Amino acid sequence: MKPRISIVLPAYNEQRYISNTIASLQQQDYDQLYEIIVVDTASTDGTVAAVRATGLDPISESRKGVSQ
């Protein structure tokens, strides 16, 4: 069964906040199937490691900035 909703989080140097953001989304009581997609936009801090620590595998975008 495919997710009905995709939550896309663009992330650029969000190491400080990304784990809490993902945890909050994972704890929602929404009863339908959803997915969380993190797009790392060339972060230079520990954003990618922080995302992976939550069990998600971020998508990499080589251009910097969340608008990419």
From TrEMBL:
<dbReference type="InterPro" id="IPR029044">
    <property type="entry name" value="Nucleotide-diphossugar_trans"/>
</dbReference>
<keyword id="KW-0328">Glycosyltransferase</keyword>
<dbReference type="Pfam" id="PF00535">
    <property type="entry name" value="Glycos_transf_2"/>
</dbReference>
<protein>
    <recommendedName>
        <fullName>Glycosyltransferase 2-like domain-containing protein</fullName>
    </recommendedName>
</protein>
<comment type="similarity">
    <text>Belongs to the glycosyltransferase 2 family.</text>
</comment>
<dbReference type="GO" id="GO:0016757">
    <property type="term" value="F:glycosyltransferase activity"/>
</dbReference>
<feature type="domain" description="Glycosyltransferase 2-like">
    <location>
        <begin position="6"/>
        <end position="53"/>
    </location>
</feature>
<keyword id="KW-0808">Transferase</keyword>
<dbReference type="InterPro" id="IPR001173">
    <property type="entry name" value="Glyco_trans_2-like"/>
</dbReference>
